[in-house]
Every structure is written in C-alpha cells, then in structure tokens.
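User: Just a sanity check before I run the rest of the batch. Below are the structure tokens for the first item. I only need the designed sequence back.
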C-alpha cells in the first residue's frame, strides 16, 4: 500500500500553516479517505478543527521527541 507523505518545513512565521490550509482546502488535492496532519509548532494561524474534521482530516500535535517516537512506532516506522 502506498501512502503519500508531504513534509513542509520553513522558518518560524513563514506561512507554513496558511499554505497547508490552502492545500487542504483545494479539492484537487484531497483524495477520498482520511488525512493526517502532524504539526510540531503553533504558529500565528490556527488550524480550524471543525473544518478539518468535516473533511475527515485529523490533527495531531507533537511537542517533544518522546511523542515523535511514539507516533512513529504506532505508524510502524519505529526509530
């Protein structure tokens, strides 16, 4: 099974969250099924939880290395 993965990096307050939200709102981008957004920092723009949920998009916050390792283990990609 192939699972597409997109990684967005950039400087603080460079517009990553806005870009991700614009991408998630684009009907050409979203496929049928579920989408998982993992974010590691809070920016100026917040994720609209109800909007994401209505599109079957889950949002997970990872705040430290232990959470990152746990998440990767759950996904079968242990470190």
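Assistant: Here's the designed sequence for the first item:
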């Amino acid at each position: 099974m192939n699972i597409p993965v997109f990684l967005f990096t950039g400087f603080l307050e460079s517009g990553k969250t806005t870009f991700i939200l614009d991408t998630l709102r684009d009907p050409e981008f979203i496929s049928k099924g579920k989408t998982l957004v993992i974010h590691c920092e809070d920016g100026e723009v917040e994720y609209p939880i109800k909007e994401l949920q209505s599109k079957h998009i889950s949002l997970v916050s990872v705040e430290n290395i232990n959470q990152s390792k746990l998440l990767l283990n759950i996904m079968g990609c242990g470190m």
